[in-house]
Amino acid sequence: ELRRVQQILLILLTRYLPNIAAVFSALSDAVLSCEFRTEKDQNPRIEWKKRGKAVTFVYFNNKFTGRAKIEGATLTIHSVTQKDSGEYRCEVTASEDHVNLGEATVNLNVLVPPHVPSCDVPSSVFVGSGLELLCKDKMSVPPATYRWYKDNRALTATAETPYSIDTNKGTLKFKSVSKLDAGMYRCESSNSVGAPKSCVAQQLKVVECRCICKIRLSCFTDQTLRENLCPSSRSVEHDDPDSRSCRFRGARPFLLHRVCLPPQRLLPQ
């Protein structure tokens, strides 16, 4: 249903009237009314302009631009989009009147219902690692709020849950992922204009990891043996050289250094 914004512009007045706001949903027809009366002039010149980085004419010299039409001084823009949002100015010139110029400004705000959001869900993550899932709908006006679902059940963050949710930013954060966090995740965006929209659910796998440690020994006469332990409960691969030459010289093997290689994924059984 079209909503009219009434603005009375009197050529007889010497002051400009304040701005008013017009709010319409995307793809509807926006009706911007500019009503006036003149003192003598029966054929005043009417112009509609849109202000941005530069002023552009919507209706000028009895010609239209874009998807606009005019009846009297009322401007109708068909199937508005977010690009149509902005400040519109109606100018009425009555050359035969004592006060021959008047104007009114209307701020058009086009509301956009939710669009299908982009959902950033990795295919797999290691046990114990931190994780952030991101949901974003860049098109919604007003900005969308977000809700996350796991296995089609809405997630609600509390002090006891291992995750936190920012409904305005669309983030779902885990401090330390466990096997129980594996599942199908999707996000839903919503605002006051239209029905919520959801991305396609994506599977998140949680996998074990191991750290392979390379140990290198050398001969040293000092009796000290230094050792840096690999993370507990992870497999260790020893790369030991032949230490017989050390025994011949009365020395003992000395741990020169230990290098942990990047974690390797253990495929589910």
TrEMBL record:
<dbReference type="GO" id="GO:0007159">
    <property type="term" value="P:leukocyte cell-cell adhesion"/>
</dbReference>
<dbReference type="Pfam" id="PF07679">
    <property type="entry name" value="I-set"/>
</dbReference>
<dbReference type="InterPro" id="IPR036179">
    <property type="entry name" value="Ig-like_dom_sf"/>
</dbReference>
<dbReference type="GO" id="GO:0098636">
    <property type="term" value="C:protein complex involved in cell adhesion"/>
</dbReference>
<dbReference type="GO" id="GO:0005886">
    <property type="term" value="C:plasma membrane"/>
</dbReference>
<dbReference type="GO" id="GO:0009986">
    <property type="term" value="C:cell surface"/>
</dbReference>
<dbReference type="InterPro" id="IPR042625">
    <property type="entry name" value="JAM2"/>
</dbReference>
<keyword id="KW-0732">Signal</keyword>
<feature type="signal peptide">
    <location>
        <begin position="1"/>
        <end position="22"/>
    </location>
</feature>
<protein>
    <submittedName>
        <fullName>Junctional adhesion molecule 2b</fullName>
    </submittedName>
</protein>
<dbReference type="InterPro" id="IPR013098">
    <property type="entry name" value="Ig_I-set"/>
</dbReference>
<dbReference type="InterPro" id="IPR007110">
    <property type="entry name" value="Ig-like_dom"/>
</dbReference>
<dbReference type="InterPro" id="IPR013783">
    <property type="entry name" value="Ig-like_fold"/>
</dbReference>
<dbReference type="InterPro" id="IPR003599">
    <property type="entry name" value="Ig_sub"/>
</dbReference>
<feature type="domain" description="Ig-like">
    <location>
        <begin position="114"/>
        <end position="207"/>
    </location>
</feature>
<feature type="domain" description="Ig-like">
    <location>
        <begin position="18"/>
        <end position="100"/>
    </location>
</feature>
<dbReference type="InterPro" id="IPR013106">
    <property type="entry name" value="Ig_V-set"/>
</dbReference>
<dbReference type="Pfam" id="PF13927">
    <property type="entry name" value="Ig_3"/>
</dbReference>
<dbReference type="InterPro" id="IPR003598">
    <property type="entry name" value="Ig_sub2"/>
</dbReference>
<dbReference type="GO" id="GO:0070160">
    <property type="term" value="C:tight junction"/>
</dbReference>
